[in-house]
Amino acid sequence: MGFRRFAIVACVALAGLARAALAQSVCTPAPSSPEARLLAFYAAPLAFAASPDAIPLARGAVVVSGDIAWLPNPPRAIRASSGACGFAKPEHSGLAPVFPRPRIRVGLGGGLVAEASWLPPVTVADATPHLGAVAVAWTPERTFPGAMQVTLRLHATLGGVDGPITCPMSALQTTSAAQACYGTNASDDTYDPRVAGAEAVASKAAGGWRWYAGGGVNSTHAHLQVNFTNRDGVVDHNQVETSLTRAALLAGAAWSPRAGLALSVQLYAVPADVTTGRIGIAWRVR
Question: What is the pTM of this model?
């Protein structure tokens, strides 16, 4: 009887360990899969692209700015997971319709500008961001034909966004433990875009306007950390990640109605994934 009881306990323990292992796997879907394309779709608007005001700064100059990017809805073809990562169901990826981002830019001299951003964990709609970003740009003193200036820029986006991506309240069910989202509490997942890139931007001043356009390349290592506890207390910590390289294009204009102030619009596109727009305001504080 003692051995039999031990065997039963051992089998239950091993089954529990196996179940926990299955709930903590890392899935790397094919780049063409809906899972990978959806991760890339939201990485583009979160990339730390060139500031919409696009103004080179002298040493010691400081510009505080902010912009709001539109987060469009993904195409129907990538809204639902394919089952490549163990489940096939619609995903609640549209956590917020817009993405605000504050920025600070500091002139370092020699045409160099350092830039940083931090979005604190303030919940907007269903999204709670904890995103930071850094960049360094260089604008040589030499101008090109047509009084055109060229800026070279490196940027990186850090941190992520928390929200009920895999199992929002609308997807919860208590009918079958074998089906997805079996429970009564929404998931608290984390999406990390992990974008690093390089850009070249050409700009030209004309009166109170500055026009600019450019392009670059983004290296995206997007990662989704699932965090869902089902009705039986089993915690799903599955991870989905993808690594993709994408071309990026941007164009826009900034208008200065008075010295030190700039209002701007920008069109930003990653042709393989999404096109979005940004509006911004910048104030030169020194």
Answer: 0.83
